Amino acid sequence: MKLDVLSQFSSRAIRFAAMGLMAVVLTACSGMNLFGPPKIKEEPIVPAQTLYQGALDDMDRQYYQTAITKLEKLERQHPRDPLTEKGKLMQVYANYRIGRFDEAILASDRYLALYPSSSEVPYVLWLKGTAYFAQIKDITRDQQLSRDAIDTYNLLINNYPRSEHAVDARDKLLVAYDQLAGKEMSVGRYYQGNGQYAAAINRFREVVERWQTSTHIEEALYRLTETYLLLGLTTEAKSAAAVLGHNYPASDWYKRAFELLGKQGLAPELNSGSWLAGVRA
């Protein structure tokens, strides 16, 4: 009888101990969020003016990354505050200043989509175009960035021709044009060296017709003279040399073209039926 009572007491004690242990385990698991998603810690709300002024102070000290963090928080916590528009503009500039050009381009696109009538649009277009421009590689690389810069600068110039930023955009356009022309020349010389004369002529012609303000125009006209002669198209060769001499009479490229024709008893002469007659200044 006594043994039965002790046995029952021991069983109850074990069950209570097991239940207590389970409660402890569950409490611990609950604290570690093993049975549900982790609790999201709420971000303390900072006044919009405080975030904006803090970002301005950071930018004055050239702490652009910390300024971007504050501006992103301003956008996140106060999406409808008037300061948010200014903050988005500052994000474009700050990303550009630290060389995060892709982020600057994305930030400019967001700003232009949200505030297409803003007085700051010319500036944002200039920043976007210059972010492309800053990434332009040498002429042996793909020139998509040059094309993107040209498109953006032209958008700025065509829509805001009196903007102070349009002046700088025009100057940078010449460099971007030169990049594209240089790429065409590089490919054209390759084709010419491999005996692919028709393909080479197409590249040089592209430079003459599209990139007349580039520094490659004189060589392009000489290469046309040279390549037409290689194909036996003397009339076109003389026309290319004539256009070169008319526009750049003191050019070394013209002297070379003149001598090249002279070796075959030819002289520069523009054929009025040639496509080159249309590009003569």
UniProtKB/TrEMBL annotation:
The chain crosses the membrane at residues 12-35. Residues 47-240 form the Outer membrane lipoprotein BamD-like domain. InterPro entries: BamD, BamD-like, TPR-like_helical_dom_sf. CDD domains: BamD. Gene3D superfamilies: Tetratricopeptide repeat domain. Signal peptide: none annotated. GO terms for cellular component: cell outer membrane. It is a lipid-anchor. PROSITE patterns: PROKAR_LIPOPROTEIN. It is found in: Cell outer membrane. Keywords: Cell outer membrane, Lipoprotein, Membrane, Palmitate, Signal, Transmembrane, Transmembrane helix. One of its GO terms (biological process) is Gram-negative-bacterium-type cell outer membrane assembly. Pfam families: YfiO. HAMAP family: OM_assembly_BamD (MF_00922). Part of the Bam complex. Part of the outer membrane protein assembly complex, which is involved in assembly and insertion of beta-barrel proteins into the outer membrane. Belongs to the BamD family. This is Outer membrane protein assembly factor BamD. It comes from Devosia marina. The gene is bamD.
